Amino acid sequence: MRYLLEEMTWPEVREALESVKLAIIPLGAHEQHGPHLKESCDAVLAEEFAKRLAERLYPWALVTPRVSFGISLHHIHFPGTITLRPETLTQLLRDVVWSLHQHGLENFLIINSHTGNQSTLDVTCTSLTHEFGVNMYYAKTTAGAKDAIRKYVRSDLYGHSCEREVSEALYLAPHLVRQDHLEAGQIRPGHWRLLRPDQPVRGFYYYDEMTANGCIGDAPSASVEAGRAIVEEALDHLELSMRILLGLPDDSERRKPEGV
Amino acid sequence: MRYLLEEMTWPEVREALESVKLAIIPLGAHEQHGPHLKESCDAVLAEEFAKRLAERLYPWALVTPRVSFGISLHHIHFPGTITLRPETLTQLLRDVVWSLHQHGLENFLIINSHTGNQSTLDVTCTSLTHEFGVNMYYAKTTAGAKDAIRKYVRSDLYGHSCEREVSEALYLAPHLVRQDHLEAGQIRPGHWRLLRPDQPVRGFYYYDEMTANGCIGDAPSASVEAGRAIVEEALDHLELSMRILLGLPDDSERRKPEGV
Amino acid sequence: MRYLLEEMTWPEVREALESVKLAIIPLGAHEQHGPHLKESCDAVLAEEFAKRLAERLYPWALVTPRVSFGISLHHIHFPGTITLRPETLTQLLRDVVWSLHQHGLENFLIINSHTGNQSTLDVTCTSLTHEFGVNMYYAKTTAGAKDAIRKYVRSDLYGHSCEREVSEALYLAPHLVRQDHLEAGQIRPGHWRLLRPDQPVRGFYYYDEMTANGCIGDAPSASVEAGRAIVEEALDHLELSMRILLGLPDDSERRKPEGV
Amino acid sequence: MRYLLEEMTWPEVREALESVKLAIIPLGAHEQHGPHLKESCDAVLAEEFAKRLAERLYPWALVTPRVSFGISLHHIHFPGTITLRPETLTQLLRDVVWSLHQHGLENFLIINSHTGNQSTLDVTCTSLTHEFGVNMYYAKTTAGAKDAIRKYVRSDLYGHSCEREVSEALYLAPHLVRQDHLEAGQIRPGHWRLLRPDQPVRGFYYYDEMTANGCIGDAPSASVEAGRAIVEEALDHLELSMRILLGLPDDSERRKPEGV
Amino acid sequence: MRYLLEEMTWPEVREALESVKLAIIPLGAHEQHGPHLKESCDAVLAEEFAKRLAERLYPWALVTPRVSFGISLHHIHFPGTITLRPETLTQLLRDVVWSLHQHGLENFLIINSHTGNQSTLDVTCTSLTHEFGVNMYYAKTTAGAKDAIRKYVRSDLYGHSCEREVSEALYLAPHLVRQDHLEAGQIRPGHWRLLRPDQPVRGFYYYDEMTANGCIGDAPSASVEAGRAIVEEALDHLELSMRILLGLPDDSERRKPEGV
Amino acid sequence: MRYLLEEMTWPEVREALESVKLAIIPLGAHEQHGPHLKESCDAVLAEEFAKRLAERLYPWALVTPRVSFGISLHHIHFPGTITLRPETLTQLLRDVVWSLHQHGLENFLIINSHTGNQSTLDVTCTSLTHEFGVNMYYAKTTAGAKDAIRKYVRSDLYGHSCEREVSEALYLAPHLVRQDHLEAGQIRPGHWRLLRPDQPVRGFYYYDEMTANGCIGDAPSASVEAGRAIVEEALDHLELSMRILLGLPDDSERRKPEGV
């Protein structure tokens, strides 16, 4: 496939760079995902999602090798979790961007599947814009699929190994799912409720303070249908945004958002 | 005042530490705020807000000297703006926390008035929890005042030198406001719309790409009444959260949130 | 006031930058000052002193927000003291200088009220001159007031919460002083005497090895008269030096030092 | 497979950790490999090799996610190459080791397929032994296959996209090879000959100074037979070394894991 | 000689460590010293001075290898000058101290011959005291020789390649001196006068702004007699201070080591 | 001597720089060398070797002050050993190279006598080539003397305080050798054998795991004759390589400098 750097030789990359304007960097995490998802879940989903986006943006985008590790200190009490320090992730992305900038690229989109990476990405994008003068973008894979999520996700508390994530996995990479171990989150009482994103105070807590089995939400209600709806809606939005940001030729079926 | 570190001698601090459980660190920014707010606006508002919160939490909280600089690279094209790099802010807060931890404190709440600092604070809190084993919290000053903001803030696009911020200033520190220069934001068209918090893609843009005068929203519609409503609602929520998080004795007028 | 960055809007800064050649950065510390001075003493005195210097240099100088923290590890055993590591202070000042350099400034004067910062400032000035090619200066607030200090300061050992510092506070910011708690230093015997600035060997010691109450010198003999004499003599010298260094127009009452 | 962290859930990791003594970290590079190998070659070969070694060491070893980037500055002039700075790779490995050390592991083997990483690994192992007190090992994948290399590799100059590497790829991951583009190295004259590992002087040179097509050696003479001989001889040596270093029971007692 | 680490084998060091309480680290600089002193002057003088001090403190002190580079950015415009950045010198000294602390030493005295290093040493000593809990001392070689300097040094401006330094060299290491090129400083007018240590403002300036030939003072008036007086007075003071700081028995009991 | 920076004044350096193309940086270590070599052995041998090489390359090369410390963590259990962390050595060399680059030099050869420094040098050379665009070379002093080593060195295990190193010392700096304490290595059994350079696995081990007296090989069989043969063969190779790399005129035209 002529848009995956891992699958190309250097003469093929040279040819692709004649049209490519955007490098897409898939970023995941290696962390526990309860009893029903493999620990590589985030890395695999980010990569699969990035491939589909790049396919839509062909021949203007390339996918780099995925970054398989992220910021997962809050999961470290569960066996197998590996975490980077934020500064390590920033420097790793900095070197990837520097390298591709040497080959002439000016636009970078980090496709991130793990919420715990978002703050570090915000910091990183500011720093790299400043250091290199390139255009840095990042997106949480399916955060833009508001309609489908409203339709298919019923849990109040969701976002990790929940019906949304399992549905995405069933659609994008079903080998990640242990269908015979699907469990709803075993939520624990605790102060973490006071530190959730919709609360006035934020702060660090370990995931095992919140859930005994490492999940939240209701994984058994996941479906491939929900996964397809969520992923494709998210891809629609991302594709459109990137076409406008990169000044790519219009795509007949899509409309420009108002006010841009 | 016996809860402001800047106003105390060391014997007074020694005495206060017999009851104090929480250090409140006010964090602002030094950056342009349009033609109608002084550049110290964020730092002053954070400090004033922190003082009121500490008063409510007396004798369990102390306010440290404010940190007057934040992450403001996006404002650097406007004269006078000063920005820290994210790692500088992290290290500065790290040293403040280290020092107070030497004096026996275990709980830290950063009261932040500048949205541009939030990601760095998230990263910082993870790092410092990890390094010192302390409890790190942070809060955007009035983000919790959802009802009052819904009532008083009419602009679609607000959050900087807008009616919300000017109202807060009119209530907390009216000397910050140039009443005779109140202007609505002079919004410019551009790609920044595609990178706002509610959009699928995030990324860095300079504030002057978005607004010609450095403001967004509608500052002329600000009022001290709105400021009082916003600030006091936010303080109510924060006080309650911190009382629970710190295990402080109950406050008769307040109820515990459900499920905690 | 049109020379205090904290008090200005960005259009006012833009206008001021038409004449301004110098940024004055007040630097203090947050540390114990015995039973008779608030812990913010150094930060407040640096800021007040910087304002008076800027007033004399108007319209060629601006005062930035003060840096309220310094190098105070030697005071950490006294409750409330907060210290930065030297590298943190260097990076903080680096970012302030970088930012103002973006706005066109080439000359920077750090007004420092805390002796414990002087070595870090020397290192910082070398580094920033090297990195940015700007002109870096620093001054210990009243070190230049040799005549007045000789006249008013009687203690052999002075320099912290002593009659000199309390006098300066009485003149510049009397609210810092607890008049009813003025105490002379309660000096302890110890090896610290062998490590004072006039000794052949230097080295680190904690302040509580030297003094039981955190003071040295004789605070009860302080007076506003002494403070005025010290501060104004120091300002005279600093103003003159800066006028020559910046190539400012002459000030009729002052003479150029010989040999320059 | 119960020895690949990427394929496991956290309860499965927990169970595996009851016997596991060794974490194997596959490390590659993303760099040009001439017209006949994909740029992911090193990362894929390291991962495949690591899996086979872990299978032999079951149930005492686990394979972590692969690190897909290495030290490739010397290849940066060829399109698509991505390089880390040495300190970035060290910090990345440091965080992986730290995390797994939290889960109780004390022995770490980095399986490295890219010669350009060896010096950084040496430095990293010294640093991490020092910081964590763990046992750090690293191995160039097939460097130990001296007999097979002597038998099958005829080129004087080999080691990158040569008959050895292509043979390994044909055996371990044939999809990496563009069979219809196999080319011998197009060697250029130059000072690089004076800086090869067998020379008295070492130093940095870019790979395009040495070869026009990015290869050295004679890729067309590669064969799956050679690959099998090289890889299996290397695995034999490594397995034996690790069994001794870890104090494992003799090979004869080993059972293949079920379902592998 | 049994007090110079460079001259000892490890069994000899082991034996010496039975009595040794202090490591003396000679620190110089590699920088221009005008037409009449070799560029290694500071490093050589620091080492010679340290040896004499260690001899006086036998068997309680050891001399480490000298650190031949210092902070010399202000001399960089003169050919041959080499400078460290302050953080490099700090880290280098940190590693030397860490290593010797592993061997059981708790007291460290840096004998420094170059004024430009003093601020970095102050910062370093604070940091290392903090990090390791050891006792850090530093001394400018002959700064304590106040009587002899008053007697022999006549220049108003002295301190680098002047009669004081040349005299010290004539006494300690005469091979450093080009007797046939002794020159007085060729002083240039300039703003540097306003930035000297006795002035109210400090700041960075290059040495070539001050002197055309790299010297100040009056080297031709140097003498071995002056050198002896200065060095021996300084040694007397330093020896006494260190004896008290280390709690050593009185001088009278001291015997000269055999074979020295 | 007009090719040793330590022995020159700045006017002499200025003159030398008219022809000099290469800076030679001697790098050693301060570490135990058994009972028969002083701990400064590596530093002294590197310096002596560098001087001889510079003499051969006169007037095209200069020798800088030696770096007396290296990477010696594996020797730290022997009294007196001092080690740098790898990043400290890199930064130190970086500053030396930066400084000399300011004086116009573009080629740098690090003459290293300590195997434990080689990996760090490889990393350093890559980094500095990248940062400064200079030509970085490094050489293990006598590694190129393959014939002489084959002839004179009989031990299977050699490389530290062995007959090779003692022979070099007898030829280059006989004062380093305690002739009356020459001992063969007292080798201990252990896992270190599995981690030697010719083994498939590499890894960190402490030297005292390998040898009880800190030596390997057979020091008593050393001779000045062997030393001469090894050193001169190595110098021949290095001189030739550097002449080609620097594009110097043929050896025959070379004249010995006057007064050397």
UniProtKB/TrEMBL annotation, chains A, B, C, D, E, F:
Q: Name one Pfam family in it.
A: Creatininase
The coenzyme or cofactor needed here is: Zn(2+)
Keywords annotated in UniProt: Hydrolase, Metal-binding, Zinc
**Record has Metal-binding as a keyword:** yes
- InterPro entries assigned to the protein according to its UniProt record, in alphabetical order: Creatininase-like_sf, Creatininase/forma_Hydrolase
Q: Which GO terms describe its biological process?
A: riboflavin biosynthetic process
Q: Which domain of life is it from?
A: Bacteria
Enumerate the GO terms in the molecular function aspect.
Answer: hydrolase activity, acting on carbon-nitrogen (but not peptide) bonds, in linear amides; metal ion binding
* TM spans (from-to): none
Q: Is the Hydrolase keyword given for this protein?
A: yes
Q: What family does this chain come from, according to its entry?
A: Belongs to the creatininase superfamily.
UniProt cross-references to PANTHER family, sorted A to Z: 2-AMINO-5-FORMYLAMINO-6-RIBOSYLAMINOPYRIMIDIN-4(3H)-ONE 5'-MONOPHOSPHATE DEFORMYLASE, 3-DEHYDRO-SCYLLO-INOSOSE HYDROLASE
> What's the protein called, per UniProt?
Creatinine amidohydrolase
Can you name the source organism? Kyrpidia spormannii
